[in-house]
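Hi R.,

Here's the chain you asked about this morning:
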Amino acid sequence: MTDVVISIVGRSNTGKTTLLEKLVRELTARGYRVGTIKHDVHGFEIDHEGKDSWRHKHAGAALTVISSPKQVAVVRDVDHDAEIDEIVARYIDDVDIVLTEGYKQSKKPKIEVFRKAAYDDLLCSDGDNLIAIATDSQHNLDVPQFDLNDARGLVDLIEEKYLAARAQELISMEVDGALVPMKPFLRAMLLRSISGMISALRGCADAKKIVIKIETGAIRSTHNHSDGVY
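And the predicted structure, written out as tokens:
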């Protein structure tokens, strides 16, 4: 479960979904695995009337799973509007960051999308854990403000503020006793690769700390370089 969750908020028709798409593409291009949550206060339907799975649900099933070789969907009855942390803990794993669309009332870090042609004032204020504004105008708030299309700048901010520190806590690398600096996306990639391999080994599924040592001779032998230069 990831603990890096950022909410994209704003009033209707300001471009929240468009910005979220751009952030997902930019984060993915940098090597991160991204999960998303869309909050819909009005309810929704993902199944189609008459389909087998729809018939299962409307016959009285409390939970229906639709499974295919490439995707799995769960349709489940709930008795409350779940908080972000509950959704992440129950349904989301193996991602580096979760972006949500909505959840203005939550305490998670937020990026507000604002268009001056649509509204006169911001949705968020100083007490709303606002970390940035994606906007086409200037606002009198002491937070970074980015152009509506500047996904790269926003991801730079997210990376520096949340992902770099988190990745450094989880994985580091030393070569000949010296700590080697790594980009956050490289840390995340190494962490996923190593964790995946180790968890498949007998007795290692619940490992709390992993230490791997590789001698230079082993690297030379593996690559079979006669000149020893890599």
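The mean pLDDT is 82.

Let me know if you need anything else.
M.
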